[in-house]
Design goal:
Strand order of the largest sheet: 8-9-7-11-10
Strand content: over 45%
Largest sheet: 5 strands, mixed
Distance between the termini: 71 Å
Shape: elongated
Order of helices and strands: EEEHEEEHEHEEHEE
Length: 189
């Protein structure tokens, strides 16, 4: 039984945002996401894991883990302080942000004060749902916002019952499927 417990763990984190890679994707470093990442790493051992405490800020990173083993129809619990090595990557969200990725453009035209308020409203809406504005570009006529999720961008306009003019531009073809970028024009007079 003791042989199953790992002597050390290797976790992956995003070097930009600090989130830990777990089976659900990159998550903030908390007990649940660490437990999920450890269980996923040890899934072949069929262990249940509870993270008791962790300190990933210190040079010598250690996670205090309780391992739960099934033995003869009952369970055995073992607490172990396990050293952790942190491998860094860049999560997809941060990669997309740094690369200028976008799926939709919102063109805001009209009154400058109303445009500024609308930028704040759009930013809050997208941020709360895991999307982002990758770039804000000022033009002579107003502001263009480049958003990471065309579906959420469309839902924003539906949610606030805003009338826009929509257009679509063919961006790519993946596995025979046409991928379009959406452009929304919103007049704020």
């Amino acid at each position: 039984m003791k042989k199953k417990i790992p002597e050390s763990l290797a976790l992956i984190y995003c070097k930009r945002c600090g989130r830990i890679k777990s089976p659900e994707g990159y998550r903030p470093p908390d007990k649940e996401s660490l437990a999920g990442a450890i269980e996923h790493q040890l899934h072949h051992l069929k262990l249940q894991v509870t993270v008791r405490s962790f300190d990933l800020e210190k040079k010598d990173k250690v996670v205090s883990v309780e391992y739960k083993f099934p033995v003869d129809g009952d369970y055995v619990f073992i607490d172990v302080d396990t050293p952790v090595t942190m491998d860094h990557q860049i999560c997809l969200d941060d990669y997309r942000k740094s690369s200028g990725y976008y799926e939709a453009i919102i063109q805001l035209r009209g009154n400058k004060e109303r445009i500024e308020r609308m930028v704040v409203k759009i930013t809050k809406f997208l941020d709360a749902r895991g999307a982002f504005i990758g770039k804000i570009e000022e033009t002579d006529a107003g502001i263009d916002l480049y958003t990471s999720d065309k579906s959420l961008t469309g839902k924003f306009f539906l949610f606030y019952k805003l009338k826009t003019k929509k257009s679509y531009t063919l961006y790519s073809i993946r596995k025979g499927k046409e991928i379009y970028r959406h452009t929304y024009l919103l007049r704020l007079d």
